[in-house]
């Protein structure tokens, strides 16, 4: 597991085939906090990535970074681990921790698209364009339950609302190339989020 940032998409040739790839800057990451089962009830480490200015860092976070002996970072993420012995405060991780792994799962935040109707958000077919349908061609239809005694809106009903801006996990992305010198990782296909969006890269849980 490592934290990274989406740089953008490009394409490369491999075996005379054109492959779309996403370029990810993965690391360097630093261990800024350790949580133990004795003190906190579980074992975990917090990784930090991407420099930010000290003036933009709140005092409690600044104390964490000073204790770890590193400069302030923008993106922090906690991971549960089986053992804490192999981690030290301030320890650095680079993209080479993923070397030898063929497939990865990537977690990111999808692009926010604002409020959307049911046709765009849930792929509804819409009402007919004629034969008495009047000014509700893109509406979702009735929201009520099946009877007067159950006329409330059911939980989980597909309706208009916010589209995007939520956590998305894309699984089984093939690792195409490593660039350990520049901390770059190229994976086949698209990953969630905009350019410069933060990502969590993990070893695939379904493909080994």
Descriptive account of the structure:
By secondary structure, the chain is mostly beta strands. It has 2 domains: about 1-25 and about 95-130 and about 155-205, Translation factors (Elongation Factor Tu (Ef-tu), domain 3, Beta Barrel), CATH 2.40.30; about 25-90, Double Stranded RNA Binding Domain, CATH 3.30.160.810. The protein is about 10% helix and about 40% strand. The strands form 3 sheets. Strands 1-2-11-10-7-12 form a 6-stranded antiparallel barrel. The longest helix has 10 residues, at about 60-70. The radius of gyration is 23 Å and the shape is extended.
Write the layout of secondary structure elements.
Elements: E1 2-14, E2 17-26, E3 29-35, H1 37-40, E4 44-51, H2 59-68, E5 73-80, E6 92-93, E7 103-109, E8 115-116, H3 118-122, E9 161-162, E10 167-179, E11 184-188, E12 198-203
Antiparallel strand pairs: 1-2, 1-12, 2-11, 3-4, 3-6, 4-5, 7-10, 7-12, 8-9, 10-11
Family: Belongs to the universal ribosomal protein uL3 family.
Keywords: Ribonucleoprotein, Ribosomal protein, RNA-binding, rRNA-binding
GO molecular function: rRNA binding; structural constituent of ribosome
